Amino acid sequence: MISKKAIALCATVGVALTGFAIATPANAEPVSNSYVAVGSDTLEDVVSTLANGSALSGSPLRSTAAGGTTIGSFDATGTAYITTKPNGVRFGRPNGSGDGRTALLRSIDGAAYTSGTVGAPAAVVITGQVDIARSSGSGTVDTAGSLIQVPFGRDAIAYAYDSGSTATGIDTISTATMTSLYTCSVTTLGGVTVTPVIPQAGSGTRKDFMSKIGVTDATLGSCVTVGQEHDASALGINTVMPMSVSRWVAMNTGASFPKLKATTVLGSLVAGTTPVTGTGTAMLPNQTYYNDSLWGRDTYLVVQYARVDPTNASYDAKLAALLDPTKATSLTNSQTTPTKTGALKKKFGILAPSTTTAVRISK
User: What is the pLDDT of residues 246-267, one digit of tens each?
Assistant: First the structure.
């Protein structure tokens, strides 16, 4: 754990509130004139919308650094290369939570960075090019770690499948059965072959899902195929894939681009509890499902510890304020009154995290 001062991220500079019209996540990715966020696919749309500005929650909201400088949030997928800052180097796009944290570490320590994105270059020095890593799960806790993860919001994991599937019980798969499917010790349900899909290496959802079902890279079965996390646009019949509930909500309400088919549905991993309530634009995350000790999860924004520690010479008051949950329009605010960014995050299926305590990590 960190000091009370750092937990509070007690910056002296506030976060500006600027009103903007409804904005969808940007396809074009201009360089940032302040801070750059990369990493998790789960959080890419909600963080991009906070950075770009939106009135989706009923009141114009935007998270900016003090002085009105804007944040650049880069998607996990897209072109193989990105350039994040003026006159900066072109480097491989970080795809997923782990890849984002690695890019942040290389931005700090000056060692060469290699992205997991296909077609990206190897060994590029990216010093100072990344400031924030989006992370859908916890990094490696280390009280002396050079990074710190600040709780962003609460999410949960369920799974997606096609409503035309014929496998018996595919709509209510237990944790134990999911383990069997992903180790390939069971390959059918009711005599019908089921194909399990796992997100790409470096994905936080992949790491969380495998941990929750007790599967490792060594025990992951050969029947499992790999796909981009949260992209159910080509999900076949009798196929299952982990799905962030927050991403599902956002894709159904119109807050995010819908990477799914009209026949894609969400299955529950918590007996007797549905991951969401309502349908279409009225869909909401189910707090009971999010509270589940196994399938609920906190998500984080990760930064260099020294930059948010008021006792350190590298302390950056603007960055600290941007991550201070007490600030009305900070990235980490979870209050849902119309003038606070927590209201906008809820439109993306993100609820208040289970804790506001920031924790140091090593990677």
Answer: 999 999 998 998 999 999 999 9
Interaxial angle between packed helices 204-213 and 97-109, expressed in degrees from 0 to 180 and rounded to the nearest 10: 130
Q: Which residue, among 252, 223, 251, has the nearest Cα to 239 in the 3D structure?
A: 223
- Residue 160: both structure tokens together: 């997606």
Q: Could you tell me if 268 and 158 are in contact, meaning their C-beta atoms sit under 8 angstroms apart?
A: yes
DSSP letters, 6-62, are: HHHT--SS----------PPPSS-PPPSS-EEEE-STTHHHHHHHHH-B-TTSS-B-
Distance CA 358, CA 173 (A): 34
Write the CA distances from 248 to 9, 34, 91, 113, integer angstroms.
31, 30, 30, 31
Short-list 329, 330, 328, 335, CA closest to 352? 335
Residue 241 has pLDDT above 60, yes or no: yes
What would the two tokens of residue 283 be?
């869909």
Residue 27 has pLDDT above 90, yes or no: no
In the DSSP assignment, the letter for residue 351 is B
Q: Give me the sign of the Cα torsion angle 144, 147, 152, 156.
A: negative
The shares of helix, strand and coil residues in the chain, as percent rounded to the nearest 5, are 20, 20, 55
Beta-strand runs (E) in 222-295: 225-227, 239-244, 264-267, 276-277, 284-285
Provide the whole-model pTM: 0.87
Confidence of residue 31 (pLDDT cuts 50, 70, 90): confident
Residue type, 319: L
Q: Which domains does the chain have, with CATH numbers?
A: 4-153+298-361 (no CATH), 154-290 (3.40.190.10)
Burial of 9 (0-12, 13-18, 19+ CB in 10 A): buried
Instruction: Provide the token pair at 55.
Output: 């009135």
User: At 306, which amino acid appears?
Assistant: A
